[in-house]
Amino acid sequence: MSHHIVEAKDLFFRYPDGTEAVKGISFKITHGESVAVVGANGAGKSTLLQHLNGYLIPTKGELRIGEVMLTRKNVHAIRRSVGMVFQDPDDQLFMPTVFDDVAFGPLNLGLSEENVKAKVNQALETVGMLHVIKRPPYKLSGGEKRSVAIATVLAMSPDILVMDEPSSNLDPLARQRLIGLLKGFHHTKIIATHDLDMALELCERTIVIHDGRLTADSRTLDLFQNESLLAESGLAKPLSMQGCHVCSGTAKQFQPRTVNHTH
To answer: Which helix (H) or strand (E) holds 26?
Structure first.
């Protein structure tokens, strides 16, 4: 399963304007791991993720997907292994119908028409969106668009699923459905998110990025209990770990108001 491994060695990336967004990051993710990448806005999470599918090429350092080192020449080989779901579904949905969008990748792989139809149906069924197969994407809700964007990636049968802020702008029900869906994807998952409760539920391991550098890489539960580390990285404990201030006695004791009835 070496083709499922993601390894970065001393990775640097500088944008054309001179902004250094990734500064010497190294990590290794093995087959079947679910890893959250967390950090404040502007920490470098999205920039890092865009290397994993070859949308960005490192300025310095190495990134390997399995045995393949990321270079401009072998981007297509990388993208066959890594499926990327962007933060904004509109970046992925550009065809006249949902069917066309989900079929786009498999068609480019040269699959037969029959095979493509089967993959589209299976991917849409997996995300619970088979009923919108004939609709134009612009007529979908935000949650539906997110689900269809995931289906476009699943239809490619990736070994590694990479997601940038998958729960942003989702209502609670759509978010819970997404978590259930991701729990059913048993290959490698790498998820950049501000939603630390989702990270806690889905990922046993978390990488913390701050100012373009990797500042922590450990078991999710251990990291999220380290309040000083989280604070230094512009983060706070997940809500589910903060406890109830009423139960803990930190809230003012509620005093019922008495009403005197005079007759």
So the answer is: strand 20-29
**3-state helix/strand/coil string of 156-170:** CCCCEEEEECCCCCC
Instruction: Give the predicted TM-score (pTM) of the model.
Output: 0.86
Kind plus residue range of the DSSP H or E element containing 202: helix 196-202
| In the block, residue with structure tokens 């990285």 | 233
Pick the CATH number of 2-242 from 3.30.300.30, 2.30.42.10, 1.10.260.40, 3.40.50.300: 3.40.50.300
Q: pLDDT tens digit string along 174-202?
A: 888 888 888 888 889 999 999 999 999 99
Each residue's pLDDT tens digit, 37-72: 999 988 999 999 999 999 999 999 999 998 899 999
Q: Which residues of 36-51 are buried (b: 16+ CB within 10 A; e: fewer)?
A: bbbbeeebbbbbbbbb
SS3 204: coil
Question: Interhelix angle for 142-154 vs 172-183, to 10°?
Answer: 10
Query: At 252, is the secondary structure helix, strand, or coil?
Result: coil
d(CA 63, CA 78): 10
